[in-house]
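User: Need the bound-state model for calcium ion:
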Amino acid sequence: MIVLVEDDPNIADLVDLYLRQGGYRVYQAADGENGLQLVRDRQPRLVILDVGLPGAIDGLDVCRQLRATSDIPIIMLTARDGEVDRVLGLEMGADDYVTKPFSPRELVARVKAILRRAETPKNDAHAVLTIGECEVDLGRREARVSGDVVPLATREFDLLAFLSENRGLALSRRQLLDGVWGADWIGDERTVDVHVRQLRKKLGDAFPLSTVWGVGYRLD
Ligand code: CA
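Assistant: Bound-state model below.
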């Protein structure tokens, strides 16, 4: 079940239709406050969130408030020229974004991909990798520093896991996009930088990630 927060009824109904065809039940809200309420009441598997919403709280506020208590997957809908919104949305823990105007089919594909990633247990479900002072628990999908769990968004954890599994290798942004977001993900390489910045902020000195100039990143 999915909560869709979108104030444009035409877009909302179109997305709703495609999601239902994709087999998902959908609950709609047309502003941020009702959206938050709906997520609390319905406990959906995923939230699709328009950035520009009427009323006191916009989509970015909703995202921040959801992330304060939950790691539920969030996809943001942003305007074509909304570069700042995209970056802010990812910094606030959104898992993905789709730029308007978008193809509803593409959005449903993103939803499926994110849910698959978030809900499928990995093969090596019990592996715990130790990276510096940081423990990456692939089975529980948890990062721990000195034994304390550090809350990460779905994609942030995926990126951390991928870096950990390839530690010692310099990885390009393209390789990271392919490995974490999937080869069919249409997005820009700065997405990687935004997520790296979040991981550095959240894990601090416990996270020995080097920037490799002209290439990308390497976890030591
Ligand atoms: Ca809007």
